[in-house]
């Protein structure tokens, strides 16, 4: 009798074990979906893109005739700045020195006005301001909307009032140079 109880218990255990295995195999075989977590990791970015013309270019003003000295000269530079920013931003401009220089001779940087151009290839928003160049950071664009590859065209202007003044007249002939720095700053 003891032997039949043990055989019955073993048979019962075998049935339960086989049923559990079959159920587990059926549950695995019937699974038709899986779940994966996807993360998007963001960092704040503000960048003047490498395609910006202002990055390493030169703007030339030539005074070769009396008419040149007696007129306003304007140089329009499309795609001067291309900015990508994850937040609203300002664009500032400043001269890296107080004068355009040629050896010991100089022309003050305030002969030059830099103007944001609306229309054309410009896609940058915000409030534009014309800037008379100085060594202080000045807002060229205030409160530009965030975006990717936002374009700003610029005009460089030397007004007739400056080109026909002692700021430029009477200076020795030659090329006077100064660097201009643009900075995009997130708000």
Annotation keywords:
2 domains; 35% strand; four-stranded antiparallel beta sheet; 3 helices; single chain; alpha+beta; 187 residues; Immunoglobulin-like; five-stranded antiparallel beta sheet
What is the overall silhouette?
A: elongated
Distance between the termini: 89 Å
Fraction of residues in H or I helices: 10-25%
The overall strand count is 11
Q: Assess the beta-strand content as a share of residues.
A: 35-45%
CATH topology title of the largest domain: Immunoglobulin-like
Oligomerization? single chain
What number of structural domains do the residues give?
Answer: 2
CATH architecture verdict of the largest domain = Sandwich
Largest sheet: 5 strands, antiparallel
Low-confidence stretches: none
**CATH hierarchy, class of the largest domain:** Mainly Beta
Q: Which sequence of strands runs across the widest sheet?
A: 1-2-10-6-8
Radius of gyration: 36 Å
How many separate helices?
A: 3
Q: Which H/E pattern describes the elements?
A: HEHEEEEEEEEEHE
The structural class is alpha+beta
Provide an overview of this structure.
With 187 residues, this protein is of the alpha+beta class. The chain folds into two domains: 1-35; 46-186, Sandwich (Immunoglobulin-like). 20% of the residues lie in helices and 35% in strands. It has a five-stranded antiparallel sheet with strand order 1-2-10-6-8. Strand 4 (99-102) and strand 5 form a beta hairpin. The radius of gyration is 36 Å and the shape is elongated. 17% of the residues are buried. Residues 1-24 form the signal peptide. This is Peptidoglycan-binding protein LysM. Keywords: Signal.
């Amino acid at each position: 009798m003891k032997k039949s109880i043990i055989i019955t218990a073993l048979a019962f255990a075998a049935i339960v074990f086989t049923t559990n295995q079959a159920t587990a195999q059926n549950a695995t075989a019937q699974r038709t979906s899986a779940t994966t977590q996807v993360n998007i990791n963001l960092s704040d970015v503000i960048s003047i893109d490498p395609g910006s013309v202002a990055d390493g270019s030169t703007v030339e003003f030539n005074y070769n005739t009396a008419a040149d000295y007696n007129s306003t000269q304007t140089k329009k530079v499309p795609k001067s700045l291309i900015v990508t920013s994850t937040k609203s931003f300002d664009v500032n401009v400043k001269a890296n020195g107080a004068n355009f220089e040629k050896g010991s001779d100089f022309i003050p940087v305030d002969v030059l006005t830099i103007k944001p151009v609306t229309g054309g290839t410009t896609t940058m928003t915000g409030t534009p301001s014309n800037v008379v160049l100085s060594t202080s950071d000045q807002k060229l664009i205030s409160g530009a909307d965030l975006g990717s590859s936002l374009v700003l065209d610029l005009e460089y202007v030397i007004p007739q009032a400056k080109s026909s003044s002692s700021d430029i007249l009477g200076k020795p002939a030659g090329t006077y140079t100064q660097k201009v720095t643009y900075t995009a700053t997130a708000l």
